[in-house]
Amino acid sequence: MKNCLWPVLFALMLSACGSMSGPQATVEDRTAAKSAAAKDAKPADAATAASAAGKGGKGVETAALGAEAVTGGAVDAKPLDGGKGGADPRKDPASPLSKRSIFFDFDSFVVKDEYRPILEAHAAYLMAHRDAKVVLQGNTDERGSREYNLALGQKRAEAVRRALAVLGVAETQLEAVSFGEEKPRSEGSTEAAYADNRRVDIVYTDEQ
Amino acid sequence: MTGMVYGAMEIQVIGGAATKIPVALVPFAGPADEPRPALTQIVGDDLVRSGQFRLVETAGAQRPTEPGQVDYKLWRGKGADALVIGQVIALPGGRFDVRFRLIDAVRQVQLAGFSYNVTPDQWRTTAHEIADVVYEKLTGQKGAFNSRIAFVQKRGKSYELRVADADGQNPRTVVRSGEPLISPAFSPDGTRLAYVSFEDKKPVVYVQSLRDGSRYPAAAFKGSNSAPAWAPDGTRLAVVLTRDEASQIYLVNTDGSGATRLTRGGNIDTEPVFSPDGATLYFTSDRGGSPQIYRMPASGGEARRVTFEGNYNVSPAISPDGKYLAYIRREGGRFQVALLDLASGQSRVLTDTAHDESPSFSPNGQTVLYATVLNGRGILATVSVDGKTRARLSESGVDAREPVWGP
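Output (structure tokens, whole complex):
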């Protein structure tokens, strides 16, 4: 790839010699002007700088335009934390703390009353564990604009965040984010899948 | 309806303008080892996709390479108003000299003639350049074939941000991630892409150089960061942040510094896009109870509602001349590309599909690129602003979405 620049320089030299444009010429030489060659000089630049591109921190890889496709790497290969001793009340199936999802109606961001016991339990836990933090992840079904759905998921997450804040949880323990329609728990275009995806998940950062 | 398949992408044109310019693309004389497909094939696909041209059959006819060789009676007899002739000559070092002329078959004069000294890698670009010349000479409008698009392709659990020629060909992956990528936006000079990545377990806006692949987070505040839009001068981005409350529009410098809040209130304000003069921001808001498109001064200030028909109008895109708004309208459960004449307030639906998303204008304002769903699969498509010509740019076996047309 490094010698990609040479043909471009070569082309520029050729045109500088004026080899194409005689006085009678009805064909205009565009090699050095706004031509294909000039336009494609960018990927040639890219080739020389391509080493600057490459692996990002989190399984993301970037490439210069014009470079060959990069190969994929492992993503999120975090080991499961199975070795922790002691009973975590958040994992007790009998506790409302084990319930982590708040579901919403279509186009709605109103937290329904039925979720109050779950939110009260998480609020109590967070107030008793001031070092614990939760991320409230808003989700939507797949219908409509991706960015608008991102905002709608955010509004749902904010509604849950506010509910926890009202119950006394410190703002520093809460972050509301949205996945919009991008990370559906249920694939498919059915009403059941849509309902499952209109959801806010309460995710403890130490459990991620 | 014509269909042409080569490489991985498919072009289909449905319908078209009532009056099309009949043009004959005479296959260029060239060496046996010239790249494939032939230049005239790529040029022809470009012209047909615009909906403004009809290709005159050239099989079995003479193949002139110089104006003096043209049998005008023959080509007029075939109905050609214009003729493209040319030749390809192999040069030392693997390069090619491409010469072509556009000839008015009625007046029997040359309208344009150019030569290009190119590498095999520049083959398609050269063809798009020729198509741009033909388009501009015969329609009076600038061509947009020699421009690029970006889109996101989902393959299994991998998301790839790709940049391709405007016809969807020659795609190159510039980002690959195991987490979703959305909302790519070209910088005005085409050298950078802003986009939203979920690799940090939440949406973060990145800006990436297309020259060297380097990148940085341009908006990574607490909460969600999304919907980047470049100011026309390339110095700032409009973004949507949730660091203060629900999705609001901010301006940031392209290095991520100096975040300034533009909208206020607990409603959703998102999908900002600048008018071409940079003075106005169009955006989607639910402040009136349903998502509608509004406009406000780019420095902030009072917002005015722009769309009124229906209860779901989102994803604004402004034409390069600032006169038209393309957007997605939901009606009867169908999401379709609509076009609003901002001066008259008249709007119309341009497509007949039901899951359209992400409209954007070609650089010459004549075509809208969008994503839709066909047979359960995400595809990219274009529609002319008169709604009469639609084309599909699709690769089989993958899911394409989030397209945007760049310079």
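Confidence is low (pLDDT under 50) at residues 1-25, 32-52, 67-85 of chain A.
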